[in-house]
Amino acid sequence: MDAILLLFLTGILSLFLGMKNKPVLNLCLNLVGLLSAGLLMGFHGTYEPLLKSFSETLVFEGEKTLVSHSAIALILFTALIQLASFSKEKNDQSTYGDLNALMIFALCGGLILLGATDYFMFFLGVEILSIPVYVLVGSKKNTTFAAEGALKYFFMGSLATAIMLMGIALTYGAVGHFNLDLTSSPKPANAFYPEILLPVGSLLILGSVLFKLGGFPFHFWNPDIYQASSKNVLGFMVSIVKISVFVAAFKLFNTAFKNMGDTWNLALSFVIIGSVLVGYLSALNQTSLKRMVSFTGISSTGFALLTLLPNENASYNGLLIYLIPYVAATLMLLFISMSIDAKDDLLQSFEGVGYQNPILGFFGLVAILSLMGIPPLSGFFGKLLILQDTFKAHHWLGLFGLLSSIFGAFVYLRLLLIFFKKSEGSSSIPLQSNIVFSLIVCTLIAMGGWIWVLF
Question: Which residues contact 70 (CB under 8 A, 6 or more apart)?
Answer without folding.
Answer: 114, 243, 244, 247, 320, 324
